[in-house]
Amino acid sequence: MKPTDGCKNLVLGRREMMVPSEGIKPCRFSGPGSLPSVGRVNKETRRGVMTESALSIQDNWYAVQTKPYREENAASNIRRLGLKVFLPKIRSEKAANGSRRAVVKPLFPGYLFARFRPSAHLHSISYARGVNRVLCTGHVPIPLGDEVVGAIEARVDADGLLRMQSAPLREGDQVVVSDGPFQGLEGVLERELSDGERAVILLKTVEYQARVLIEKMRLRPQTEAA
What we know:
Layout: E1 7-9, H1 43-46, H2 52-55, E2 60-66, H3 71-79, E3 84-86, E4 89-96, E5 99-106, E6 111-116, H4 118-126, E7 131-137, E8 140-141, E9 143-144, H5 146-153, E10 174-177, E11 186-192, E12 198-204, E13 209-215, E14 219-221, H6 222-225
Parallel strand pairs: 1-7
Antiparallel strand pairs: 2-6, 2-7, 2-9, 3-6, 4-5, 7-8, 10-11, 10-14, 11-12, 12-13
């Protein structure tokens, strides 16, 4: 198999997936849609010192770009090759018909992680249904350290979804209703219900005050809404 077989150059626009130089550097993870970076491409790597033969003796994690909206399909077909796949997902919100609803989507749309040995599986993965390419620099697939993927895996909850680190709403916080019949109204969060999904807020307007039971996903901190 030629070194270029099944491997395309790394092109991510403003995003950059970087190769480790002197060991793996700390993973910089900035949130949904932003792939982690794991070091920088040094001159030796550009010159081809990190060859396919050097990578072929061990399994590593690699980033795989999928075809649009085919992450699940690509993951399923790579698993059929007997390989480990990690497709991190998050719960997000989607606006529709003037309201918002919870949806599950990939943390990195259009990407997944697969653990494999390039000399044995690069060709098969590159031609699997749903796969666009394995991310490379030059002609070499970009390996990710176990700690890079592990840092993301460690944040996966029992429901299989990644927990995002965001400041939780607390009693007494000033909030704004983001959608629904009370959209735009401001209030104070009085208490959270035991189901963790709803809260009681005290709405404050020029004309009246009222306590309202509302879904927490419809609330935003006033500072964030501003």
